[in-house]
Amino acid sequence: MSAYPSFREHIAQINDLLNVFNILNWDSHTQMPHGGAETRGHQLATIVQLAQERFASDTTARLLDAVEAEVEDDDYYSYRRREVQNTRWAYDIARRIPAALMSKIVGLRPTAEQAWVDAKKHNDFTRFAPYLTQAFDYQKQLAEAIGYVDHPYDALLLRYEPEMNVERLRHLFDIMKGTLLPLLQNIVAKGDVVRSDFLYGDFDEAKQREFALGVAQQFGYDLNRGRLDVSAHPFEVSFTRNDVRITTRYQRNYLPGALFGVLHEAGHALYEQGASIELTRTALTTDFLGNYAVAGVSFGAHESQSRLWENQVGRSRAFWQLHFPRLQSHFASQLAGVDAESFYRAVNRVRPSFIRVEADEMTYNFHIMLRVEIEIGLLDGSIKVSDLPELWRAKMQEYLGVTPPTDTLGVLQDIHWAMASIGSFCTYTVGNVMSGQWMAAARREVDGLDTALANGHYAPLLGWLTDNIYRHARAFSPNELLIRATGEPLNPDAYLGYLVEKYTDIYK
Length: 508
Ligand code: ZN
Fold this sequence. Notes:
Blueprint: H1 4-30, H2 37-55, H3 58-71, H4 79-96, H5 99-121, H6 129-146, H7 152-157, H8 166-189, H9 205-219, E1 226-230, E2 236-238, E3 244-248, H10 255-273, E4 286-287, E5 292-293, H11 299-313, H12 317-330, H13 340-346, H14 364-380, H15 388-400, H16 426-445, H17 449-454, H18 459-468, H19 478-486, H20 493-507
Helix pairs in contact: 1-2, 1-3, 3-4, 5-6, 8-14, 8-20, 9-10, 10-11, 11-16, 12-13, 14-15, 14-16, 16-20
The chain binds zinc ion.
């Protein structure tokens, strides 16, 4: 008798638990009254613990042993074989992580986050430093428990971007710096030649929503299986492909915030909605190590889709030539006298700044490299926590030519380290790089793609992305997807070419 149905049902229930976790999490960021926070925290912790216990159990081991023998002769790329392979991979790692260490890491978070808020408020890094030291100490222990060949950071990357390691990241960053540093210096030398004052004003929220959601639907975001809500920090979350939700935050005084935010999250949502129906409630829509029900195969692959739709499509000249008249009719007085070309240039304005989340498409990558280089150094001991504020200022000056006047605007700006989320920053730049490869390959393979996009026909692009990426969910690794669809693994050439062409044109 085949063990496969039992294996599948066992995994399906873990996937159900993690989808319930997602729903509770979505609710706590969009609907829940403040008073619900404490008990909701318990509910979330209980659900994750149930999922973890079920996954790291002897039952999983027994079922894996049985089904591995059954799928041995399946095609190497078959979904069934991949379900089993992925589950084995995650199971072996999960079993190496001591529960006591995980509870120390989780337990440090609330006090570390408090210390971070306090330090940021008072511009006093020393209030956060001891917690940061402790957090990285736990991460070193985690890396040792998981195991690695060359660098402890490699072990932490497994959860976010399994095919990346320190050596590959350094190589990637070197290539990117070689092209982007001189390009940025040339742009900065031009001075402030791109007008953007009309992006600031008073923009009715309902109109912002109507326009942005309308575009997301044109991209292919299916509202029968999705919805848009408001939250303090925008996100996308799925409870299977049949219910994929996005959130945004409206800034009344700044038009691009919610607009591009919605296109970004819609890009994430298209990935989740595009997963093949047969993969629902399987190992191929479950991130066992991250304790997350998700179809996207890695954080970087997910970001590649949000950034493709937001930037490669949504910040293109063709996009604004088509859509600007409609935006202008929504905001006739604010955008009076502005034309599509001026608007296109304004939303692509490059300006080095202190804050990562406010950075433009190009300088963003430097904010990421800086953080990743610091994380790597903190983990291997080549950088000390006490050196961070000064090192941060030096690297900001080196990469972006600006020096933050305070630590609040510098090393203390992100919550990630207080949350023990170490190893995830690189996925933003990996996603950017992949987005360039996908778009270049789609242009090669889909006849008349640019004409279709210029006419607002997004189905050919969505179809290509669905065929090559979305429908497979987590069945193939990012590099497998890239090689199958573009002929080569992660390679920054297409993305760098895109940036050089775009900004050379805008800044002459
Ligand atoms: Zn994103």
